[in-house]
Design goal:
Elements: E1 3-9, E2 21-25, E3 37-38, H1 49-52, H2 55-64, E4 69-74, E5 77-79, H3 90-95, H4 100-107, E6 112-115, E7 118-119, H5 125-132, H6 136-148, H7 153-160, E8 164-165, E9 171-174, H8 175-195, H9 208-223, E10 228-231, E11 233-235, H10 241-252
Parallel strand pairs: 1-2, 1-4, 2-3, 6-10
Antiparallel strand pairs: 4-9, 5-11, 6-9, 7-8
Helix pairs in contact: 6-8, 7-9, 8-9
Domain DUF4422: 5-225
Organism: Ligilactobacillus ruminis (strain ATCC 27782 / RF3) (Lactobacillus ruminis)
Protein name: Putative capsular biosynthesis protein
Length: 259
């Protein structure tokens, strides 16, 4: 079997080692990064990167690459081999990035790899989105699913009431799964795009389709009963956890309004 994990980046930055990793340059930079492929080749939606974020690379890989297993990760967020690596140095993290042997062992037994769930504890996924973003996008998403994929509506409502989810738009899956998920996801998002006017959105809020897609992964995975395992996500840079926690609480209780 052939394996390709696409590492999405808009910066010319260090990439994980190994033949399974394919650095993908996204965004409007004129210069090509050495060793990267670009998502603006072949059939693509590269120009929508400000709104779709890393999903432009997912679309490109779905439409243009041939591999038995495809995956999507980020230059700042990578799967580990199994350890959480909290507090580890950057070098230690790179030493523990998911490697081909571990990947092969997992994919021989399962259909997909997802990041360990992120917990919100005091909020549901719906309320967290509402406190962090403009809710109209998620409201329209529900309408689109009700109209185009009514069999998914019960699962959508169920997922939105939860307090945890597989976030970050990270997935590694057999091509059949990767392609089927991509086809459904971009069909839903494409219809939402037609219905929501984002011309007045801030730069942050204009990333609407990248935000919404994070909440749709579990809907599709569970509706289709995909056999998956979870791996920890390593953050390959400094995180200001105090600021993140403060913003989470502030938005929840209305001290800070969404952009």
């Amino acid at each position: 079997m052939s394996y390709e994990i696409y590492v999405v980046s808009h910066k010319d930055i260090r990439m994980p080692e190994g033949n399974i990793y394919i650095p993908v340059q996204v965004g409007p930079a004129k210069d090509d990064f050495s060793g990267f492929v670009r998502d603006n080749t072949g059939e693509n939606i590269s120009e929508k990167n400000p709104n779709y974020c890393e999903l432009t690379a997912q679309y490109w890989a779905w439409k243009n690459r041939k591999a038995d297993v495809k995956g999507l990760v980020h230059y700042r967020r990578l799967f580990s081999k199994g350890k959480r690596m909290l507090g580890a140095s950057l070098e230690k993290k790179y030493e523990n990035v998911l490697d081909e042997k571990t990947l092969v062992d997992i994919m021989e037994k399962h259909d997909a790899i997802l990041p360990k769930k992120r917990n919100y504890y005091i909020e549901t996924l719906w309320s967290h989105y509402e406190h962090s973003h403009k809710i109209e996008g998620l409201e329209e998403t529900r309408k689109v699913i009700a109209e185009k994929y009514p069999d998914y509506l019960i699962k959508f409502d169920e997922v939105m009431k939860r307090r945890s989810a597989h976030m970050f738009n990270m997935i590694i899956a057999k091509d059949k799964v990767f392609s089927a998920y991509s086809e459904w996801l971009f069909d839903v998002l494409g219809e939402v795009e037609k219905r929501v006017d984002i011309s007045g959105y801030s730069v942050s809020e204009a990333r609407i389709f990248g935000y919404i897609s994070e909440l749709l992964m579990d809907v599709w995975i569970e509706q289709n009963q995909i056999d998956y395992v979870e791996l920890p996500v390593m953050f390959m840079g400094n995180q200001n956890m105090v600021k993140k926690i403060w913003m989470f609480i502030a938005r929840k209780f209305g001290f800070v309004k969404q952009p």
